[in-house]
Amino acid sequence: MNVGTAAVRPSPRRAAARMRTQATTAALLLLLTGVTIVFLMPIVWMVSTSLKSNQHVFDLPIQWFPRQPLWSNYPAAYTTVHFTRYFMNSAIVTASVTVLNVLLSALAGYGLAKYRFVGRHVLLVLILATLMLPLEVIMVPLYLTVQRLGWLNSYQGMIVPVAANALGVLMMRQYFLSLPDDLIAAARIDGAGHVSTFLRIGVPLAWPALLTVAILIFQSTWDDFVWPFLIISNTAKATVPLAVQTFQSAETSNFPMLMAVSSIASVPLTVLFFVFQRQIIGGVATTGMRH
Amino acid sequence: MFQGSRSRAAAPRLMRSHGSARPAPGAAWPAPGWITRARRRWFGPTQPWWGVVFALPILALLVCFKFWPMAYAAWLSLTNATLTDRGGHFIGIHNYARLARDTTFIGALLTTGRYVGATIAVSMVLGLALAVLLNQKVPARGLFRTLIFLPAVVPIIVVPILWQFLFNPYGLVNDALKVLGLQPVNWLLSPQGAVGALVVATAWRLTPLCMVIYLAGLQSIPGELYEAAKVDGAGAPRRFRSITLPMLKPTFLVVVVFAITLTVQNFVLALVMTGGGPDNASTTLSLFVYQTGFIGFQMGYASAAALVMLLIIVAFTMASLRAFRTEE
Q1: pLDDT for B30-78, tens place per residue?
Q2: Which end of chain A is more exposed for a tag (fewer CB within 10 A), N or C?
Q3: Angstroms from A38 CA to nearest CA on chain B
Q4: What is the ipTM, given to two decimal places?
């Protein structure tokens, strides 16, 4: 009916309406462009400053694109900070945490979704309650516990306590709940054991969820500063965020170098974001709870 | 094991309530029906106890590194433990009484209130506005969404370093103020400015996250509602007030809880940007816990403050749950 009346309308009014829509779109585009520029300005400024020399940092008028970009700041920053070593450390820690967490989350999610045992709701609530418990609340006793284990300044100290994250359990359980029980039952009737059913039916079917969990855990572990900061004092074991902070406290006012170091440190997560944008944005939107 | 302990305790009571239960021949205690059923189900062909086996590994880790530290924190908060004297002595609620008199702690509490309140207000309003804009039919809105999300991708340690530079007396923020004809502010060295700088830096990173959550909420609102309202002659502001806002209620809840938890717990920004200064003016609760525990080495006292922080997070989570529930 709507379409019918629209077709009968005299054409000048329709043209006016189209003009109005175009004007609205243009206004929206203008507004969005403005907001985007404001949000990106700090990042652009970071990159821009990283290509300047220290005496021209605060020059006015502002040079967004330095006339003679000092690309040499980047190799200098890379070697001063010994980035290779810290990237290696971060990679070791993050990969271990991700593998461990995805494995444990998949197991627990499968167990909680596919078996109807007594007290499974209590167990689930217990596990999910830990999501409300930020590291900052338990950092003192956790530090003392890790110290007693003799794990200060060690990889296992950075890996094992962080791998206990219930977020993956929540997401994996959600996914396994959507898998039909008949698949599992069929495999069991065919004589497959519990573990082999999980490995041969559960895991292959759940890879989209496994990937999402892996990306989210990878991102938050790579980005984590607080826990390594508390337990690592030996620079040989430091991760990238720790190395950046150490450099910052030593070179507070060498702004171009500081910004070059910051830019280099931002590269891995930015690449990860552009490759797995759908999973990362979807993960934030659905869980609304990253750490 | 589970089965054994359960049947011994429960059998006599059930005998009384089901007087007609017939003793099985040769059995000392007749097994009541529900136990037989439970046993059959527990050890039957589906073997549900395997579910516990699957959950056991992560449960073990959670017990060691979440539940145990939590209990340990509760105990520590009642002692005068330090880094060297880790056991300490039981001193009852002395730590909590001391917190109530500690002007630094009270100051941290107030700073946290202002910091969290302002950050959340900015991020939630701005995030909603951006989400509504991006939910319109505009060209290249995927590109805009990606670009606006980028601040949330910047590593958390880079955020304070970058903003410390931007809030430099001669930095970009003051340049912008000058362009607008306003007085430059000594951001990081004045009590008001330091908290303001923290709010801006946090909101810069938090707003895109809020925006993405809002967008998911907006996209779940059925389009027919807007069509129907349009037919009824409702203008855009009216549609926003009568459809968008009420339908977004569950999303608001998620955003509030998410934003509160994230801002209350975070102390990296305060630590690196202002170090809590000037004169403790920007010391937030979590920074107070860190400084007391890891710089002052007062593990017991720090744990008491940490528990207060947990209490605040839980209280706000519960309050917002209730606020958004009861109105439905």
Answers
A1: 667 777 776 666 666 567 788 888 889 999 999 999 999 999 999 999 9
A2: N
A3: 9
A4: 0.87
